Amino acid sequence: MKLYDLELSGNCYKVRLFCALAGIPVTLHPVDFMGGEHKTAPFLAMNPLGELPILQDGDVLLRDSQAILVYLATQYGGEAWCPKDPAHLAEVIAWLSTAANNIQHGPADARLIELFGYPLDKASTVAQSDFILPVFEAQLSRHDWLVLNRPTIADIANFPYIALAHQGGISLAAYPAIRQWMTRIQALPNFIGMPAID
């Protein structure tokens, strides 16, 4: 199994992290992002969007970190990480959508502006962060985990860019339940970090 990877990408990291936590062997293929490898014809043949990560597992070729998490969890991780029960599965998917939308356009985009100089609207990223982080705080004030009172791919999908929020100038000081949740994730067996996440 091969992961086309970028070390500083939170979306790539969530796949690396899940593989480590679930004990799924994966070979990393670093992509020369600064050199534009993700825009070359061979790469675009794998993912026409020119984005990372990409997972290749035999004949299976997948893009999008949330989709990759679903595949890995259901193919290799069992119900421990992704429930089959329709109602519980729907809850997990709702948090995956939150990761791809609110967290991406809040803390993740703020980080792109501050760390990489992306020409995005900083005020919009701050407003989105101010909207979504209290939602997480409320959920995690009542529960140790986002879904089912155990870690699932819902937690793994949302963790990276919340943990990296400080790199975008987004403070978590007002969110003790979120900070405790992050500590619980970092205490999971086989946890691995990335730059700026211990």
TrEMBL record:
It holds the Pfam family GST_C. It comes from the Bacteria. The keyword Transferase applies. One of its GO terms (molecular function) is transferase activity. Keywords: Transferase. Residues 1-80 form the GST N-terminal domain. Residues 85-198 form the GST C-terminal domain. PROSITE patterns: GST_CTER, GST_NTER. InterPro entries: Glutathione-S-Trfase_C-like, Glutathione-S-Trfase_C_sf, Glutathione_S-Trfase, Glutathione_S-Trfase_N, GST_C, Thioredoxin-like_sf. This is Glutathione S-transferase. It comes from Methylophilus rhizosphaerae. The lineage of its organism: Bacteria, Pseudomonadati, Pseudomonadota, Betaproteobacteria, Nitrosomonadales.
